[in-house]
Write a structure and sequence with these properties.
The protein is about 70% helix and about 10% strand. The chain is mainly α. The chain has two domains: about 220 residues, Rhopdopsin 7-helix transmembrane proteins; about 90 residues, 2-Layer Sandwich (Alpha-Beta Plaits). Helix 2 packs antiparallel against helix 3, helix 4 packs antiparallel against helix 5 and helix 4 runs parallel beside helix 7. One of its GO terms (cellular component) is plasma membrane.
Length: about 325
């Protein structure tokens, strides 16, 4: 079978996987969190690249000047987007480590240089063929400077890998391996593509990386509070909606809302680190005080909610007094 057909099939499978992740993630993720926004952008850009690549493959070899111009336009956009997933991966890693958007902006200001270089070469290739060109038969060909594209992309992935290793003590142990694994599929895909000309599997490989991050990190963090590890406000809303739609009418819900007295004074007098420690201690007390089946969430600054399934109101009051 033609290698382009294999590439097209891989693109379609990757698009299906990313579409499922995107729909679920877009619905449930807290987009006020920067790492969630970066992950969502990576999903969008990789999906766009896969669509552009698939359309281009479908048009290769078709005759006509309009097809020629369309192929050039699609390929130009494709090349302009190429470094963005790895750039936002670097931003994702940096924010995961430092939790500072202000600090990240300083890094990105310098790190954008490869993106600018890629953009200049991509636009110039329309006239020079440096990165790509199409012959009279409308078949795609790599230009003499094509190697600059993977260099720009892998630069960010390599930098992110170094950042993870250098700051491994600041990363949660359960997140370390998935973050390190991210670089492996695109690296292996790059090696395979170098050995087998005409086979393009970098973006399906990157889909495996994104799927790994989604399963082992994002699916957990999008419904939990990053500080305490309890459920967040959004998951609380989903829990109530789900319970009302699916649970037995024989059971009732009992809820308790709690907050920390004089929490503002803790922050003002001892600093926000002490305030964070107080919130973490509160979450640990709640976990030890209630059953594993009870729903515990942090829904605001110092506000917590506990939801229990009970038989009646007397049962809930007895549990609380106990």
């Amino acid at each position: 079978m033609n290698l382009l057909v294999y590439t097209l099939q891989a693109n379609i499978y990757a698009l299906i996987i990313l579409s499922i992740i995107f729909v679920n993630f877009r619905k449930r993720a807290d987009l006020t969190n920067a790492s969630n926004r970066f992950f969502l952008i990576m999903l969008k850009v990789v999906m766009a690249i896969l669509i552009l690549d698939s359309i281009g493959i479908s048009l290769y070899g078709l005759a006509g000047q309009p097809i020629h111009f369309l192929l050039i336009l699609l390929t130009l956009i494709y090349y302009l987007l190429n470094p963005l997933p790895s750039l936002f991966w670097m931003a994702y890693v940096h924010y995961t480590i430092h939790r500072s958007e202000k600090r990240l902006k300083k890094l990105v200001a310098v790190a954008l240089l490869p993106v600018y270089l890629n953009s200049i070469l991509s636009i110039a290739s329309i006239f020079t063929g440096w990165l790509f060109y199409f012959g009279a038969d409308n078949v795609y060909q790599r230009g003499p400077l094509f190697v600059m594209v993977p260099i720009c992309c892998y630069f960010y992935i390599f930098l992110s890998f170094v950042m993870i290793l250098w700051n491994r003590n600041r990363i949660r142990q359960r997140d370390l391996l998935p973050l390190l694994f991210f670089a492996l599929p695109p690296f292996l895909a790059g090696v395979i593509q170098a050995l087998i000309y005409g086979l393009a599997i970098t973006w399906p490989a990157l889909t495996i990386s994104l799927l790994t991050i989604y399963i082992f990190i994002q699916s957990r963090t999008m419904n939990t509070d990053h500080l305490t590890g309890l459920y967040n406000r959004r998951e609380f809303d989903y829990y109530l909606e789900d319970w009302m739609n699916w649970h037995s009418k024989k059971k009732q819900l009992a809820g308790f809302m709690l907050d920390l007295d004089r929490f503002k004074e803790i922050n003002d007098n001892f600093g926000h680190n002490a305030g964070d420690r107080a919130l973490i201690n509160m979450s640990e007390i709640l976990r030890k005080s209630f059953r594993n089946t009870d729903f515990i969430a942090r829904i605001g600054g110092d506000e917590f909610v506990v939801v229990l399934e009970v038989d009646d109101q007397k049962d809930s009051m007895g549990f609380w007094s106990g």
